[in-house]
Amino acid sequence: MIIATIPVFGLVAGLSFYKEKVTAGNIAGILMTVPGMLIVVSGRGGLETGNVTDLPGTNMPLGAMFLFMAVFSAVGHTVILKRMTRSYNAFTVTFYQHALGALYFILPVLLIDAQRINVKHFITKADFWYPILMLSVFCSSIAFMMFTAAIKELGVTRTNTFSAVIPIVTASVGFALGIETINWIQALGILVVVFGLVLSQLRSRRS
């Protein structure tokens, strides 16, 4: 639910940094995505977190703080990305983003993980490369290029609203594959989120 607040903070960022034009209907649609996600989550079995104080390694305040850090990082990413799209295309931005990310992850792998695992055992197996290729090509490269293009065309506010659809798409695909179930309460929540998303993207006749 904390991650579901990204559209709300994205609205604040879009208005603050770029003075993006939004209507009252757009704002209402963005705000609707949060209770919509609340309905989806509660429909799965409630929002009860249970007694976590006895669980080893559980720290609710610290966990919530890290989640909010993730939210602010995501919104900050779109704010910087919007400025970069004025000078660079989506392919260039995605390339350098992935290149820097590769350096960030490869160095610890070479210094730490490569000494602990049998590298040849993994790189010679198809089961190792299939998820890597799927994640790197479709879920990272293509996804980030499309996201960057959306930031350029739609702006920070409208693009961030689509983050509320991520769990909806996940649940829908899981349902289609027969590994998830969706009850009527969750279906209602999905409709609220989708309606809020459509409302958030509508432009005034003047614009």
Task: Compute the number of helices.
Answer: 8
For the record, give the distance between the C-alpha atoms at the N and C termini, rounded to a whole number: 33 Å
**Major sheet: size, sense and barrel closure?**
none
Give me the count of strands: 0
Cα radius of gyration in angstroms: 20 Å
Summed up, the domain count is 1
Mean pLDDT across all amino acids: 86
Percentage beta strand: under 5%
Low-confidence stretches: none
Oligomer: single chain
**Molecular shape:** globular
Helix fraction, binned, reads over 70%
H/E topology pattern:
HHHHHHHH
What structural class should be given to the helix and strand makeup?
Answer: mainly alpha
Word description of this protein:
The chain has 8 helices and no strands. With about 210 residues, the protein is mainly α. The protein has one domain. The longest helix has about 35 residues, at about 125-160. The radius of gyration is 20 Å and the shape is globular. The chain starts with 5 loop residues before the first helix and ends in a 6-residue tail after the last helix. About 20% of the residues are buried.
Which features does this protein show?
mainly alpha, globular
Summary, kept brief:
The protein is mainly alpha-helical. The chain has 8 helices and no strands.
Record the SSE blueprint.
Layout: H1 6-18, H2 24-45, H3 60-84, H4 90-111, H5 119-123, H6 126-161, H7 166-176, H8 184-201
